[in-house]
Specification:
This is Nucleoside recognition protein. The chain is mainly α. It has helices at about 1-55, 60-70, 80-90, 90-100, 105-115, 120-130, 135-155, 175-210, 215, 220-225, 235-245, 245-260, 265-275, 280-290, 295-329. The longest helix has about 55 residues, at about 1-55.
Length: about 325
Amino acid sequence: MVMFKKNKSVEIIDMFSTHRVSAQFRSAFRPATTTTVWLLKIMLPISLVVRMLQYYGVIAWLAQYLDVVFQYIGLPGASAIAFLTGASVTTYAGLAVMLSMELTMREATIIAIMMLLCHALPLECAVVKRVGSNPWEMAALRIVAAFAAALFLNAVLPEMTNPFVAHPEADAEGTVWTVMELWLLASMKLSLMIYLLIYSLMVVQRLLSEFGVMPLLDKPLRPVMLLFGLPENSAYLWLVGNVLGISYGSAMMLDLEDSGAITKEEANEVNYHLIMNHSMLEDTLVFSAVGISAFWILFVRMLFAFLLVWSRRLLGLSFRKCKTVSKKG
């Protein structure tokens, strides 16, 4: 009788858990659709414009002037268009430009990581400003980090001559309609891929929230915080920023600041890390899906976040020591 009751209880718990899981899958459908439509409204027109500019030779004309700078970081001048698009709009917009260009896998890896370090500057700098960080300083640091990372990758990456995307032939001898047809086919594949990725990410985010997984990871992550030079009590904040993105992370920072759980300076320190290293789950999945190495994405972003925070801490310590010595003198 006792065993029957126990089994019945387990069955009820399992049914309840299954219902909670299925509810997250259902609830993700509408926002995933809305987000995908919003992204495609940005990405598809940009990718079509780039295809047309390529067809009429405008990209090649611009590239000859930009080659002088970008050749030092192992990139063709035309790739500057992808970087500038990503830096000013979103990584998805920059990716749309990349997918419209003829790049080797090596070139695509470099430009992808540049964009991941430096993207959506107007939006994300406005977000970090809300929690007290200097938006101009953050923007400058991200631009410098992007080019520093490109120099580093150009020095260490092996030759990868295989194409990033296999483009069917549609050169100057083809017609505009041929270009349009190829663009439409590529866009359909891209749209499906983006929807599946965004839907999967939203389901994961909802499951983590529904079952309270993220707060449970707070204590185990504290040693990682010390390694990155961040306050111990910022583990949950760091996790939110890395899983959900800098916008969610900043919203959480404001809440923690208001409650007194974290100081303004501690929140600022976390921001220095997050500007280099945020949305790791989404960004890694998206760029891995188009062939960019997950190892280089994770390694370079974590490396630059580590270097930035520790450099800032050491410079601050040196400055305070100099100030103390000058006062004693």
